[in-house]
Design goal:
78 residues, 67% helix
């Protein structure tokens, strides 16, 4: 969820500050930013509201996630 990290940084927020604003754990937000997990709809709205952006700006892009998987598979030689 790189969009989330970019938006958070542009807002001048640390993971800790955003976690306090949207009542989510820092680790959970980090997992979202790195693409390890996906947010629930409710969590996505809390994060978007805390950042002052539309929820669609932070929603994970499936095409980029699939692209990351393909790259990882190619690197492993599969």
């Amino acid at each position: 969820m790189n969009n989330l990290k970019d938006i958070r940084k542009k807002a001048g927020l640390t993971l800790e500050a955003l976690s306090l604003k949207c009542e989510s754990s820092k680790g959970g937000l980090h997992d979202l930013e790195s693409g390890v997990s996906q947010p629930t709809i409710a969590r996505a709205y809390r994060i978007a509201n805390a950042l002052g952006v539309d929820v669609y700006r932070i929603w994970p892009d499936k095409s980029s996630r699939n692209r990351k998987k393909r790259v990882a598979i190619k690197k492993k030689g599969v």
